[in-house]
Amino acid sequence: MPLLRGLELPLAGILLVITLCLESIVHVLRKSTSRIPGPWYTMWTDVVLRYNMFYGRRGQYVHKLHAKYGPVVRIGPNQVDMTDMQAYKTIYSTREVFLKSPWYKVLTGNVVDAMFTTSDPHHHRRIRRLLSAPLSEAALASSHALCRKKAELAVQRMRDESREKGAADVYKWWMFMTTDIIGELTFGRSFDMLAKSERDQYAIDVEGIGRTSVFYTTFTPLHRLLRHLPIPVVQRAYRTSRNLASYADEAVARYKSLAAEEDPGKPHNDNDDEDDNDNDNHPKLFEKVFTAEKQGAISATEIRDNAQSYIVAGSDTTAVTLTYLVWSVCRAPPHVRSALLAEMAAWGDDPSAEDLKGKGARYLNCVVDETLRLYGAAQTGLPRLVPPGGAVLAGYGLDAGTTVEAQAYSLHRDGRVFGDPETFDPGRWEGASREMREQLVPFGGGTRACIGLHLAKMELRLGTFLFFRTFPDAEVAAPDDEMNMETFFVLSPKAGRCLIRVH
């Protein structure tokens, strides 16, 4: 046509763009996630999820979506979060059909391939076999004395700081305690954080791992390009990653040095005032790993990567939950503390590990469970991939490769299961229903459940006993908003501290 002469090429370009847009729309609408309830924008982008992730509000954001859209909600073009427990049991089954997504490698900047991050079930089982036995409840019984000594020193440091400054930062001291414990149990020698009594670069790096990991997960796949830009948050993330790798190398080297000595099993004392009569028979968590290295069954790089994971997972996670436990009991109605103190009075000054988990410690364990419900360290989703062939979850058919998760933040605040879910109420666990027990999942589930859960519970029980036995009248010394939760992959208080006045 004469009117269109000379416009054929521009028109062809416009038609091509329209065609590609229509194909893209059709592709999105055909995806199984298009039938999942959720905000319209999540069909096209997860930028809002990433925004909330970066600012430590991921858990709260997804929870609000559940409140509006129900137990199954789309949070990204190919990502779904669920609060349906049958779906949870399927996703996190012991059969490990739903494999970990590549997100776990991204979490560490794609530099760590450890038991925690690997998506290969065979690699995971191989490493877990080497690490699981020393972390069993029975094996850890011999570590009770060591953990108690570290907890006693932490409480002593809290008293000293409170006398000097008017309040103690319990988050700092619990972090130092758990870091020293995991160092000594894993590598045979403490990191000496309680002895140094100050936040050095190591402590800063461990505490900052949440913000570091969220940088990688938010800016995937651009973070490798961003590393060259002189932006403080970017450079801090890469510096922290490098430092953590160095700490792991140093810890492994220390272990090997101790192993070469005449008496390598003797724990290192980090306090000159401590006596030398510790139980030296506590398990070395990496002993089988180092034996496997000598036999050529594991590489030095694998050891370093798993050591790095242990350093982080064994310190910040339990420390932050123990911090919120102390803060919550101090803020709770008086009957909560009264019940806890009355129960502890019957144990004497030196309860055993069995005493702290037995029937005589019923209320203590209610306090621990309630804290894990509201303030377990891993609040956000643990993503898995729908296997080949697809799957039906909570009544929805999902394509293979869809990312599915069930975040603890929402499962633990499900009003259908937990009455008045935002209230800290340890008493709810005294007559807990089977449904409540099943939906308390602070350590994950299936074969990928946290390997250190028994150690974490030992530290939580001991820390609670020693703190409130020593400071029965402890009180909060800072505004509540300092403890607003930042839900990075590992929970942290907004202010990075928790001030408690002790006497």
UniProtKB/TrEMBL annotation:
Identify the residues that bind heme. 450
Give any Pfam family that matches. p450
A GO MF label: monooxygenase activity
Q: Keywords assigned by UniProt?
A: Heme, Iron, Metal-binding, Monooxygenase, Oxidoreductase
Q: SUPFAM superfamilies, alphabetically?
A: Cytochrome P450
Q: Where is this region: Disordered?
A: 259-283
Q: Known PROSITE patterns for this protein?
A: CYTOCHROME_P450 (PS00086)
Among PANTHER family, the record links this protein to: CYTOCHROME P450, CYTOCHROME P450 MONOOXYGENASE STCB-RELATED
Protein family membership: Belongs to the cytochrome P450 family.
Q: What's the protein called, per UniProt?
A: Cytochrome P450
Lineage at the top is: Eukaryota, Fungi, Dikarya, Ascomycota, Pezizomycotina
